[in-house]
Amino acid sequence: MTPRLAPEPPGSPDRNARRRARTRAALLGAARHLFAERGPEQTTIAEIAERADTAIGSFYNYFRTKEDLLAALLEETLSAQNRLMDSRRTGITDAAEAISVAHRHFVGLTLAQPEWAWLLVRLDVTHHLIDRALAATAMSDLGAGIRSGRFRVASPELALRASGGAMLAVMHALLRGELGPEADSEHAEGVLRSFGLDPEEAAEIARRPMPAQPEQERGG
Question: According to the model, what pLDDT value does residue 125 have?
C-alpha cells in the first residue's frame, strides 16, 4: 500500500513558490489585458495591481518598474510565438520561404489572437524590447538569403526594420478591419520583393500552403 504523503505545512517553500508563481502570472495577465486595451503609457501600476486582485505593494515584490513587467511580458509572449513559428518552419531550407512563413505566421495571429496582436501594435514599432526579441531570428533569415544570393538589399539593418514595421502596420490595419483575409500572403509577397526576389517567384512562395503547427504546439 502506497503511504500517504503528509500535507504541506502552511508557509512551506513549495507552497510559497506556487503562490508567488500565481501572483506573478496574475500581474502579467492583468498587464497584458490593460496594455492591449490602452497601451503601456496609459496604464498605471495601481490599475495593473487592481486587475490582478493584489495589493500595489505586492507588485514590487516581482517587478521594480512597469518597464520591467513589460520586458517580462514581451519575453514570455514573443518567445512562445517564436517557438511556434519555428516549429512551422521545420525542414524549410529556402530563406525566402522561411521568411514568408514567419511573416504570415505573425500576421495570421492578428485574427487568431487579437488581444496579443493589439499588445504588439500598441507598443512603438521601434521599441527596443521588440527589436531584441525578434531581430535575431529575422536577421539570421535575411543573412542566409543574402549569402545564398536569393536576396539583394543595400542595407540589411534597414531592410529588417522596414519589413518589421510593415508587418506591424498590416497587423494594425487588420485589427481595424481595413484589410482582407489575403493580407498575410500579400504582405509576405511585398517583403520578399523588397528583398530583391523576382515578383512572380515572390507571389508564388507567399501563397504556398502554410505548414501546420505540430499538434503538441497548438493553442500556445
Answer: 42
Residue 164 buriedness (CB in 10 A; 0-12 / 13-18 / 19+): buried
Q: Is the entire prediction scored with pTM above 0.70?
A: yes
Q: Compute the Cα dihedral for 86, 90, 95, 98 and give only its sign.
A: negative
In the predicted structure, residue 35 carries a pLDDT above the cut 90: no
In this model, does residue 150 exceed pLDDT 90? yes
What CATH number has the domain bearing residue 29?
1.10.10.60
Same-domain status, 18 and 85: no
pLDDT digits (tens, 9 = 90+) for 178-220: 999 899 999 999 999 999 999 999 999 999 999 987 654 444 4
Nearest to 174 by CA among 164, 184, 165: 184
Distance between CA atoms of residues 3 and 127, nearest Å: 55
Q: Which domain holds residue 48?
A: 12-63
Give residue 58's identity as a one-letter amino acid code: S
Q: Are residues 165 and 142 in the same domain?
A: yes
